[in-house]
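A.,

Following up on our hallway conversation. Structure tokens first:
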């Protein structure tokens, strides 16, 4: 098994999403100077707001992604550091820093001379439990440390050396730079470049990828009053978000700190039944999941008209399909409203949720200002995310409190 395949196989349990990819050889495309500033995507704007909100407080760690890879052989850290910087410079959006002070609208600026900070921690001499405790402590401190979004790059790499040639790599990156579908291609390019450098070869030069700036410009050209009108109609009559079941009331602010993870893998028979239901009703597995979550909310809160968020990839129709392999933060969260009729038919519920999902497609890249502010409140006390396992190599779902 090659380096890239091995690394991605090890990283998968820690990653939020995976994407199909081709192993690439890359070239160092460093330039001097900086590009002109440009705007933010809708999800970027929300994450920037959260980062500014947290400044000067103890509430750090929001939107910090950590990919932890454990290998059983030692890496050459200088070559790995160089490979990371080469990939950062190939995909210019990875080098972005952000500006918001003293200007009317926030913007990002690419820094093509940025270098990915790479630090080595020598933990040789520690036994397995000691190594694990040191690493666990690091991950917590590293997440809380966060980033200053004013300074590029907003990512870093830490390499831990252990006994017996063990090598653990932690890639820490702010979510504002890229989404889950971008992670696997970035890792593929890094370790492909690393292999070439380790052999003493120059990575093969590739044609420049389509820049994330094109996506942001494409979005800006499509901002219309129809987006606000669509969400205003969708949310008409709602005055509060549906609270997360068994959580504190929606009227009381959530704690600024705290997180947890619960993993539940469904049996194969349940998955087959869900797929069969989707096929019989002409819908999708994602629609079945969204409908099931709506039923959970309705039954545990006693509210038949539920409202929650759904994160969408936003790649299918963007740039005439050319955004599918783009590196950057393209995803967005949009509201889902479901009216549950306990006496209704399952097929009718699924068809209704599916129809709403298709209707929102033309508006899924709208800013939170368009989709949420129409009712003046946060509408995402819980949010869902579904991913196509056939296309991405894995499927994950999540629901977590949102402000």
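Then the amino acids I'd put at each of the 403 positions:
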């Amino acid at each position: 098994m090659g380096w890239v395949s091995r690394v991605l196989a090890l990283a998968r349990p820690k990653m939020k999403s995976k994407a199909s990819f081709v192993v690439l050889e890359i070239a160092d495309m460093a330039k001097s100077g900086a590009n002109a500033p440009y705007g933010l995507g809708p999800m970027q704007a929300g994450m920037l707001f959260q980062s500014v909100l947290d400044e000067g407080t103890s509430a750090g760690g929001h939107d910090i992604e950590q990919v932890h890879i454990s290998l059983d052989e030692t890496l050459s850290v200088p070559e790995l550091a160089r490979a990371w910087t080469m990939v950062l410079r190939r995909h210019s959006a990875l080098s972005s820093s952000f500006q918001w002070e003293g200007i009317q609208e926030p913007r990002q600026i690419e820094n093509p001379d940025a270098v990915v900070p790479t630090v080595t921690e020598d933990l040789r001499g520690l036994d397995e439990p000691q190594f694990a405790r040191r690493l666990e402590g690091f991950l917590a401190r590293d997440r809380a440390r966060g980033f200053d979004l004013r300074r590029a790059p907003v990512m870093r790499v830490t390499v831990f050396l252990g006994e017996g040639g063990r090598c653990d790599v932690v890639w820490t990156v702010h979510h504002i730079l890229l989404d889950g579908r971008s992670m696997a291609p970035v890792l593929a390019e890094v370790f492909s470049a690393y292999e070439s450098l380790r052999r003493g070869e120059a990575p093969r030069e590739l044609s420049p990828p389509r820049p994330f700036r094109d996506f942001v410009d494409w979005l800006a050209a499509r901002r219309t009053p129809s987006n606000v009108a669509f969400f205003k109609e969708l949310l008409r009559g709602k005055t509060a978000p549906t609270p997360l079941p068994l959580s504190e009331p929606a009227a009381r602010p959530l704690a600024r700190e705290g997180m947890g993870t619960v993993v539940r893998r469904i049996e194969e028979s349940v998955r087959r039944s869900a797929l069969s239901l989707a096929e019989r009703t002409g819908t999708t597995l994602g629609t079945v999941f969204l409908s099931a979550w709506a039923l959970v909310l309705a039954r545990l809160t006693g509210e038949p008209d539920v409202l929650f968020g759904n994160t969408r990839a936003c790649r299918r129709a963007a740039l005439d399909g050319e955004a599918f392999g783009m590196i950057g933060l393209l995803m967005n969260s949009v509201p889902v409203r479901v009216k549950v009729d306990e006496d209704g038919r399952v097929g009718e519920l699924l068809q209704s949720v599916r129809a709403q999902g298709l209707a929102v497609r033309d508006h899924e890249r709208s800013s939170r200002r368009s989709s949420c502010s129409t009712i003046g409140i946060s509408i995402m006390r819980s949010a869902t995310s579904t991913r196509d396992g056939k296309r991405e190599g894995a499927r994950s779902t999540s629901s977590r409190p949102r402000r």
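The beta strands are 64-71, 96-99, 107-110, 118-122, 155-161, 167-174, 305-312, 332-339, 383-385. Curious whether your intuition agrees with the design.

B.
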